[in-house]
Amino acid sequence: MSTFIEIPVWSEPLPFRYFENDGGGPVFPHRHKEIEIIQAVQNQTRIGVGDRMYTLEAGDIFFFAGGQPHYFLPSPNSLRNVFQFDIAIFDVQLMQTSLSGINETMLHRPPCSQDWPKPVAAEVTRILAALRQAAGDGGLRATVIGNLYLLLDCFVHRLPELKDVPAHSADPNILRAQTVTRQLNQIYDCINDHYFEPISLPAIAGLVGFNPQYFARFFKRNTGSTFGRFLLNYRVMKACFELTESDDPMPDIAERCGFGSVKTFHHEFKREMQTSPLEYRKRMRKEGTG
Predict the structure, then answer these.
(1) Where is the signal peptide (predicted)?
(2) Are 63 and 84 in contact (CB under 8 A)?
(3) Cα 68 from Cα 168, distance rounded (Å)
(4) Are 69 and 174 in contact (CB under 8 A)?
């Protein structure tokens, strides 16, 4: 089984999205660094993870940790809710953990609600309902983020630990995907910890033991973006949060988000967001009070 990389496109700077899928056709094997949650709404949803198949009945919930290869078999007349979010949305410094640490913990939890304690399944169902409602209102970012933290608490602290995580050593494609995912998570952790500092491609290439030329090809092949573009997008995303959540002056935000100067910050932000940082802040404040 070969897999391809999926790169979600967020409709706004908040790296979260919700949509419905009718299950009418197959979804070929793929993986992404984002966490994904599937909630079966109508009829059966059939999911393949590695060499194991799961059949979800209406009301069942399933989550994928970042980087897990998975696919869907056609499920005619079915309907499922899909939630995706970037694990980098969590404040790992405050939680005293790492992105890869969170992801590794989730790999050791039962992914299907059929194996969860009933109170946890009921709580996750309630949280997903709140996320669906908030997803329809762009001004409810705090609600989305708060509920994602509640989800993380359910998955990490309220689910039993799997003693024997299924091994997929028989499939070299899955082993290769797991290796790539670990390497990407190292890179994402480094970016999350140091985005406010100068980050050179040679330095981060050395983190995973690659020479710069190979690293550049590896990163583009597995993320669909150049490293420079990815880092810039990440800094702009952080700036969006800063502009929305604080009244700090532009020079302070530019420095905290890793831009070398206010001029560079204004130029890159406007190029990415099609508006100036100041106008973005005004628009977000207006939407939040509208």
Answers:
(1) none
(2) no
(3) 11
(4) yes
- Residue 4: pLDDT band (50, 70, 90) is low
pLDDT at 168: 45
- What does the block give as tokens for 161? 């630990």
Mean pLDDT, range 189-215, rounded to an integer:
88
Q: Which of 75, 244, 247 shows the shortest CA–CA distance to 144?
A: 244
Enumerate the β-bridge partners of residue 17. Answer: 84
Q: Tell me the Cα Rg of the chain.
A: 20
pLDDT of residue 184: 75
Please indicate whether residue 274 or residue 9 has the higher confidence score (pLDDT). 274
- Pseudo-torsion of CA 70, 131, 21, 52, nearest 10°? 20
pLDDT of 2: 44
Angle, vertex CA 259, rays to CA 180 and CA 210, nearest 5? 25
Whole-number Å distance between alpha carbons of 196 and 258: 4
The pTM of this model reads 0.63
Q: With bands split at pLDDT 50, 70 and 90, how would you rate the model's confidence at 257?
A: very high
d(CA 173, CA 67) in angstroms, rounded, equals 13
What is 206-256 written as a DSSP string? Answer: HHTT--HHHHHHHHHHHHSS-HHHHHHHHHHHHHHHHHHH----HHHHHHH
Question: Could you tell me if 168 and 49 are in contact, meaning their C-beta atoms sit under 8 angstroms apart?
Answer: no
Q: Kindly tell me if the per-residue pLDDT of 165 is higher than 60.
A: no
Tokens 């700090």 locate to 248
User: Could you tell me which residue, 124 or 46, shows the higher pLDDT?
Assistant: 124
